[in-house]
Amino acid sequence: MIMKHLAVPATWFLTIFLQTAQTNLHAGALMLTTVARFDGTNGTSGTSLLLAEDGNFYGVSEGGGTYQLGTVFRLTPAGDLSAIASFDGTNGANAHGGLIQGVDGNLYGAADYGGSQNSGSVFSSTFGTIYKVTTNGNITTLHSFNKLDGAYPFAKLTLAPDGSFYGTTLQGGAYTNASGARLGTIFRVTTNGEFTLMLSFNGTNGAFPASELLEGPAGDFYGTASRGGSADQGLVFKMTTKGVLTTLASFDSTNGRSPEGGLVFHSDGFFYGTTRYGGVADGGTVFRMSTNGILTSLAALDARTGIEPRATLLPVSDSLFYGTAQQGGILPNGQPGIGSVFQVTTNGVRSQIVSFGITRGTQPLCQLCKGNDGGYYGGVFSGGGVPAIGVIRLEDAIAPSIQTVSKTNNVLTLKWNSVPGQTYGVDYLPTLDAPAWINFSSRTAVTTNTSVQDVAGASQRFYRVVLLP
User: Considering 48, 248, 430, 454, which has the largest number of Cβ atoms within 10 A of its Cβ?
Assistant: First the structure.
């Protein structure tokens, strides 16, 4: 939170002093703003965004569009969000994984459902596609999955140095578990649609991979599987370009379970990632892993920070990451949130940055994307009324500063600068050496100036205005 202090003796308001601004967040404290909304025609929910070479953001929505099966959308720097293509079932449906730009300038992605294997107009039983789309909206199917070569590609593709793409499918492949579910695959595809099945997961070496792959420092690919490993709680693997798979580390619930996000390779020479569940509160963990597979649990997430992280972390400095959590967090009014953005250091110190709720958007499932303006952008699942909030932005917080103080008929009015949509708390101390601040009021700003009133009494009060996360 960011705050300003002001001391006001309530019966003699001209005796005033302003203390130095203080903050208890890092220097890059952020606040949440709405950038764009979905109205159904352009999509229904947001995921991770791609900042393309043309300066626009591109993303996919799992619903909406001409056929109600999802869209590929463009977001301009001015905040204009429009669908450039609609999924029709044959070219894909219900995409989640986000986009990546190829060396040819086109956008590539995978759709969870749809493709040539569908039966009539019922796409819930289809196995997904890999597609190419130009920035002006021409979409081409490169491959339709047939269950044996993969099914339900949940994650975005990874661009390899040779210009081809590697990816995972959540199910499909050669092996099944006891209930008959196929355990997932890794594949390679070229820009002209030449498809290669690299391997099928067999349960021991992993199962149900939901994350994108990461090319490591030596050219191998790294990823996570949500099941499999020594305790069947998920694992981290390495795959060579020849399709040779090695298990590097297994999760056992205490250090995490069910990893769904991808890995990042940091400047300190370690891999970092998250698990959706596990840890002390079973709300997920943040972990670090060495290149030879030594895994360290850095932080266990809880309801105050946010729980169930499902996306890849974003490095923002040599020692800091931003992440998103699908559930949890604490709203400015103290009520439970429905998702959050959190920060975590390389030594495991974590805290909530902002929380989400019905009026602020809900359930961020995305990795944040840094824009050319220095802000951090991402998609949210729903919330914020009609049309629903689709894309949010985290930007540098502006510290509130008390601008004026007035008293009329024993009513004291404090006014401060504000950002519309942000929530501010007003606290006071009866004396400067009092042990704790006492909350007096909170206000959600509608304009660039916000005020609060207090009845003047016989004793002085020292006020502060706090920007709430």
Answer: 48
CATH 2.60.120.1440, applies to 30-396: no
pLDDT at position 46: 87
CB half-sphere exposure, 75, CA atoms < 13 A: 27
State phi, psi for 221 to the nearest 5 degrees: -110, 140
Could you read off the pLDDT of 376-412 as tens digits, one per residue? 999 998 877 778 888 999 987 778 888 888 888 888 8
The DSSP element (H or E) to which 288 belongs, if any, is strand 285-289
185 vs 418, more confident: 185
pTM across the whole model: 0.85
CB proximity list for 120: less than 8 A, separation 6 or greater: none
CA neighbor of 249 nearest in space, from 277, 257, 241:
257
- The domain limits of the chain are 2-25+399-467, 30-396
Q: Could you tell me which of 66, 123, 121 has the C-alpha nearest to residue 92? A: 123
Q: Would you tell me how many other CB atoms lie within 10 Å of the CB of residue 291?
A: 16
If we measure between CA atoms, which residue out of 201, 323, 336, 189 comes closest to residue 262?
A: 323
Would you call 397 exposed, middle or buried from its count of C-beta atoms within 10 A (0-12, 13-18, 19+)?
buried
Dist. CA 377–CA 397, nearest whole Å: 15
Contact 183, 169 (CB under 8 A): no
Q: Quick one: which of 309, 308, 266 has its CA closest to 291?
A: 266
Residue 200 tokens read as 């099928």
CA atoms of 89 and 122, how far apart (whole Å): 9
Model confidence at 458, in pLDDT bands (50, 70, 90)? low
**Other C-beta atoms within 10 Å of 446: how many?**
10
Q: Is 69 left (phi over 0), alpha (psi -120 to 50) or beta?
A: alpha
Q: What is the mean pLDDT of the chain?
A: 89
Cis status, amide bond into 387, omega within 30 of 0? yes
